[in-house]
């Protein structure tokens, strides 16, 4: 037997494995998970019924074209089916977009800090990551991002609202940015948290995409629709991009359970968006209480808040865990706290108040 290991791509050296949010400790007195921007509500009974019905055919491959879901999405958003592509979560679609556009020698621009999958999937594609710092107010610096475009730029991620800061860019600045980006560079508007946006000046990417062939919009069923465990997301983009996505997608990457649950969720959208409304009320409550306690909290349009704690990040995360809520620390930078059930948010607020007094 040979002593050497299989040759792996050198580009993988130093790329971290995606780190999921820490689960709530099993067996603890109370344990709430506020670390992955999930929806605290369980699936609607009607959605579960459809999942259970679909499970009866698990011996079969799913419908690879996701026909039912594509038709439902096309109706819901007023776009042609040919402008849609589904994938294994929106992160799966983002990875397909990179495969379709970018490779060694190419450049991919995104803000930093932003969604932590961007550097991983960009570097896996072989392209060079160009990270543009957020402004002091933790918002995308769109002028600097447009300045960073070169002849090698193939794709730009704009995470709107941004994970982990919750901040969102508004219509006028986003349109000015899109006008500056060359039309052969794909701009990906990652709108994983779109349904939580309440600032009316934050544009709906699906409206922006309509007359811009170089814009792709990413959406997911993981957050507002509460289906994170089923892994289904989609892109809206003009035909050449959507067709490329269908080529690069993992075959059968969206299970029939996921497809049927997504269709059932779109049909029960009023109820699900009502839950989103309750979460937005909780977000306002948490945000205002934190500000009253003296914290500086960037305006959030997503289902989480961001506390820039610097060196105290790990200490605050540990205090939260001791109190029964698990949050998401980014070492040395800050803490992302998902808005959860009211009891969980109360624990978080009590912990934050006690911690604040010690600062
Ligand atoms: N985009 C952003 C900005 C996210 O925060 C997330 C999930 N944390 C995703 C995409 C991926 O979501 P999913 O793959 O579950 O659709």
TrEMBL record:
Pfam families in the record: Aminotran_1_2
Residues bearing N6-(pyridoxal phosphate)lysine?
Answer: 223
Q: Where is the Aminotransferase class I/classII large domain?
A: 33-349
What are the protein's UniProt keywords? Aminotransferase, Pyridoxal phosphate, Transferase
User: Organism's domain of life?
Assistant: Bacteria
Q: According to its UniProt record, which reaction does this protein catalyse?
A: an aromatic L-alpha-amino acid + 2-oxoglutarate = an aromatic oxo-acid + L-glutamate
What InterPro entries does the database record attribute to this sequence? Aminotrans_II_pyridoxalP_BS (IPR001917), Aminotransferase_I/II_large (IPR004839), ArAT (IPR024892), HisP_aminotrans (IPR005861), HistidinolP_aminotransfase (IPR050106), PyrdxlP-dep_Trfase (IPR015424), PyrdxlP-dep_Trfase_major (IPR015421), PyrdxlP-dep_Trfase_small (IPR015422)
Provide the cofactor list for this protein: pyridoxal 5'-phosphate
EC code: 2.6.1.57
Q: Does the keyword Transferase apply?
A: yes
User: Where is the chain membrane-spanning?
Assistant: none
Q: Which SUPFAM superfamilies match?
A: PLP-dependent transferases
Task: Spell out the subunit comment.
Answer: Homodimer.
For this protein, the record's NCBIfam families field holds:
hisC, PRK03321.1
Main function: Aminotransferase that catalyzes the conversion of aromatic amino acids and 2-oxoglutarate into corresponding aromatic oxo acids and L-glutamate.
The family annotation for this protein states:
Belongs to the class-II pyridoxal-phosphate-dependent aminotransferase family.
Q: What's this protein's name?
A: Aromatic amino acid aminotransferase
Gene that specifies this protein: hisC
